[in-house]
Amino acid sequence: MDIPKIIQDLRDELNQHNHNYYVLDKPTISDFEFDQKLKQLQELENQHPELFDENSPTQRVGGTITKNFQTLVHDYRMYSLDNSYSTEDLTDWETRIQKVLGNVPLQYTCELKYDGASISITYENGKLKRAVTRGDGFQGDDVTNNIKTIKSIPLKLKGSYPERFDIRGEIILPFEGFEKMNQELIEIGETPYSNPRNTASGSLKLQDSSEVAKRPLECLLYFIVGNNLNIKTQFEGLEAARNWGFKVPKEARLANSLEEVFEYINYWDEHRHKLPYETDGVVIKVNSFQHQDELGYTAKSPRWAMAYKFKAEQVSTKLNSISYQVGRTGSITPVANLEPVQLAGTIVKRASLHNADQIEKLDIRIGDTVFVEKGGEIIPKIIAVDLSKRNPDAQRTQYISHCPECHSELVRTEGEANHYCPNFYGCPPQIIGRIQHFISRKAMDIEGLGGETVALLFNNGLVNDFADLYELTVEQILPLERMAQKSAENLINGVQKSKEVPFERVLYAIGIRYVGETVAKKLAKHYKTIDALQNASLMDLILVDEIGEKIAQSVIEFFENEENVHIIERLKQFGVQLELIEKHNPNATDKLVGKTFVVSGVFEKFSRDDLKKAIEDNGGKVGSSISAKTDFVVAGDNMGPAKLEKANQLKVPIITEDDFLVMIS
Ligand code: AMP
Ligand code: ZN
């Protein structure tokens, strides 16, 4: 078997599938098939560490931690762009250019201006070498590891390409992915991100590249620099980049005159809201590289390019009232109720006012005429008050002091922007919100029960917390509005069936603040039972992989509350899974309980992952490095010399895979 060839073929195939999916939006295999192939490649690479390639598609999942990003100097400076705001500005620009060029016929490339974070990526012999942020234009941060996790960026190029070049583009977060990320944050009671641009640019500097890998980032390319490129125009450059495998938006157009540039601008000013990502303008570039060379640069920007900024769409309307929403965690959000008005293709009736500080800053009063804008945020924003239209009798807005739902006095923790209703157990939207979270799809996924029914059950006094769900009977719920025998039975069955939901999802469902799906999995795996989690100290929790102080503190607070403990106790009695049930494995034994193993080298009978799994299946633990706590080192071929020395030094027995097989047989 020609292993190097099999591995290379798999890599090429997976690269092509990534390209089909992330660049062309035309996948040709299912996600499942893709994952299978990736797994197969991963296993082969594990068995053949000598064939490691930093640009293999398996490296996309990330996992490197960067504490300090290294500063790197750009081979070619990254300039800014001059801005223009009107057709006159652009006409003036053309006049200036033509003075230099001598009134030659000119072509322009028109592109959309993507709103994200700019990046410069270097390719050498078709392979991604490094990726650097813009920084001050002369030097930026080395974010190569993070960039490699973005799947629309090719790690290896197709076709024929220059030996070495830099390609520039914008890292963006399309609206859909952004909203999904925010939805997940809201579900765990975290504050959502404010706009896609800042979130995209913040992502580049995350220390853990596997976190970056989880974000639905994209990279849109717009410029190539280098020597001997063999490209003559900007437009050709875009096409070349597309052929090499980059994502280059198809909206770019060649214009033969400023008139055509204006047409492009007008078209996109109107249609930009239909794009899947944010644009704040158009970039117009002199097409010919020869002309570009003649024009050169000012101290800050190329003379051959110009950004045209769209006006943010703004309308004015009347503020009818302010209402206050109470979230599942008790957090209060003020919402402006507006006289309905058309804006950026939708009818706007409401706008978020964020918090008390924002209201104070705007000094917004009921009856005011306000300017509303739709920028990066999906939810429109109130920019300012039209003071010229203010009624002289308008009263200053008093922020509420009591919960609009349960009338408890609100609290505001120092350093936090939002007010809270502290009546965790008596405030209806908090109670209903928690139960709705409990039954949601990623949590207990209770079939036959939806969010509105939860409110109905609560309002009829049938449930007050999620444990109450398990005591409901068909007779109790039949009298409810629109509840037929069949749907009542379905609901009760759904609730009963949820007792099979595994511990990790139950842990997510009970809604400990900051404990999202992933954290719940980590905690469940580590502690295995709710009792162990409940008894964990703050220190203990912080020591768990990836659990920070904020989460740890929140877990402690949750269990300090007697009401919570009581609810958990009742869930336990009803038979909800509050312990991890290890999946039944016919090969599992407890022969290795209490023993810690470190695995090193290459094996014949196992892949490294299989060996690790075999250790765990038999009750043992797998350590990552040799220490005084290591009981055995399982060594294959090519064990690292440092490990060997360490094992000898600590007198840790070194065993072969055959020894290991005997141990578990
Ligand atoms: P500004 O940050 O307003 O000076 O605008 C310059 C930035 O626009 C560049 O640094 C790029 O990051 C970004 N940009 C977005 N789309 C394009 C594009 N199509 N061509 C060139 N630059 C772009
Ligand atoms: Zn309340």
Automatic annotation (TrEMBL):
- Species for this entry: Flavobacterium buctense
Keywords associated with the record = DNA damage, DNA repair, DNA replication, Ligase, Magnesium, Manganese, Metal-binding, NAD, Zinc
Cofactor(s) recorded for this entry are: Mg(2+); Mn(2+)
**Record-linked Gene3D superfamilies:** 5' to 3' exonuclease, C-terminal subdomain, 6.20.10.30, BRCT domain, DNA ligase/mRNA capping enzyme, Helix hairpin bin, Nucleic acid-binding proteins
The catalysed reaction is: NAD(+) + (deoxyribonucleotide)n-3'-hydroxyl + 5'-phospho-(deoxyribonucleotide)m = (deoxyribonucleotide)n+m + AMP + beta-nicotinamide D-nucleotide
The record's section on InterPro entries has:
BRCT_dom, BRCT_dom_sf, DisA/LigA_HHH, DNA_ligase, DNA_ligase_CS, DNAligase_adenylation, DNAligase_N, Hlx-hairpin-Hlx_DNA-bd_motif
The record places the active site at 113
Q: Which SUPFAM superfamilies match?
A: BRCT domain (SSF52113), DNA ligase/mRNA capping enzyme, catalytic domain (SSF56091), Nucleic acid-binding proteins (SSF50249), RuvA domain 2-like (SSF47781)
Briefly state the protein's biological role: DNA ligase that catalyzes the formation of phosphodiester linkages between 5'-phosphoryl and 3'-hydroxyl groups in double-stranded DNA using NAD as a coenzyme and as the energy source for the reaction. It is essential for DNA replication and repair of damaged DNA.
Domain BRCT residues, every copy: 587-665
Tell me its family.
Belongs to the NAD-dependent DNA ligase family. LigA subfamily.
For the keyword Ligase, the answer is yes
Pfam families per UniProt:
BRCT, DNA_ligase_aden, DNA_ligase_ZBD, HHH_2, OB_DNA_ligase
Q: Which gene encodes it?
A: ligA
Tell me the residue numbers annotated for binding NAD(+): 31-35, 80-81, 111, 134, 170, 285, 309
EC nos: 6.5.1.2
State the organism's lineage. Bacteria, Pseudomonadati, Bacteroidota, Flavobacteriia, Flavobacteriales
Name the domain of life this protein comes from.
Answer: Bacteria
SMART domains under this entry? BRCT (SM00292), HhH1 (SM00278), LIGANc (SM00532)
| Protein name (record) | DNA ligase
Q: What CDD domains does the record point to? A: LIGANc
Extract the GO molecular function terms from the UniProt entry. Answer: DNA ligase (NAD+) activity
Q: What residues does Zn(2+) bind to?
A: 403, 406, 421, 427
